[in-house]
Specification:
single chain, five-stranded parallel sheet, three-stranded antiparallel sheet, 9 helices, 8 strands, globular
């Protein structure tokens, strides 16, 4: 993880929500309340980022995928680009209720969607009556919004990365119901106890979201590299897995995680 606490500070990761919107369960990750704004403890953010990145890498190295979820405007394009870069499923439009908990039905719908795409690609759609073809194209537009990032999914993901758990409460609920581990950016207005690997951070600022997503992408790519090595040499990857936790602890001990006591919050209102 090639970042420092200063990088987090520069990205505005420490700016929480106004104190009137503070969720008391986020207290372990709050450094202070200043000028009516909750300030996130970046030492805790750094620690949680390390744990989350190590976990994500392990999931991917083990052969499972991580679904990236974030439908708020600030996160949509960042997650779309990130998922495309590492070939992971994603949802940046409306979360379709039952995407995970009613997975078999989703797979049936995806099969239908792929059939329509094939008809369009081979020109079969153009041979239909205009009214019938128009109806299919309207349904395809709707399906594209719902299935844009999951059309190639064939099994439940091994984990989920989520931006803003209040905004994605249905997705969080489905993951919890199915026991799918969650990693999420959790702001001071949210309950971090709902998440397996909460990352206390500003979930509104584009810079904050982008920085954290970049770290997750790096972890995914590391996991994919290890997945390839595992196929070629299972013994090597087994040794790496056994020492992964120790490596994370060592890197955490060597990192500079000193958090400045005085934080300038004069521009908080403009940042949130």
């Amino acid at each position: 993880m090639n970042i420092t606490v200063k990088d987090l500070l520069d990205a505005g990761v420490h700016f929480g929500h106004q104190t009137r919107r503070w969720n008391p369960r986020s207290k372990p990750y709050v450094y202070d309340h200043r000028s009516g704004v909750s300030i996130i403890d970046l030492e805790k953010t750094y620690e949680q980022l390390q744990k989350a990145a190590a976990f994500i890498e392990e999931v991917v190295a083990g052969g499972q995928d991580v679904i990236l979820i974030g439908t708020k405007r600030q996160a949509q394009e960042i997650l779309r680009e990130a998922a495309t870069m590492c070939n992971m499923p994603f949802c940046v439009n409306r979360w379709l209720g039952g995407t995970l908990t009613n997975f078999e039905t989703i797979l049936t719908s995806l099969k239908k969607y792929k059939k329509f795409l094939s008809m369009e690609a081979n020109g079969e759609l153009d041979k239909l009556y205009a009214k019938e073809a128009a109806a299919i194209r309207r349904e395809m537009d709707r399906m594209n919004r719902n299935f844009e990032g999951i059309k190639d999914i064939s099994k439940l993901p091994g984990a989920a990365f989520i931006v803003d758990i209040k905004n994605e409460e249905i997705a969080v609920s489905e993951c919890r119901k199915l026991g799918i581990p969650t990693v999420a950016i959790v702001d001071t207005n949210s309950d971090p106890t709902l998440i397996d690997y909460p990352i206390p951070a500003n979930d509104d600022a584009v810079k904050s979201i982008r920085l954290i997503v970049e770290i997750m992408v790096e972890a995914i790519q590391n996991g994919l590299s290890r997945r390839v090595v595992q196929v070629k040499n299972p013994q090597i990857i087994s040794k790496k897995r056994n020492s992964a936790a120790q490596e994370a602890e060592n890197s955490e001990a060597d990192a500079d995680v000193k958090f400045a006591a005085d934080i300038d919050v004069n521009s908080v209102e403009e940042s949130k």
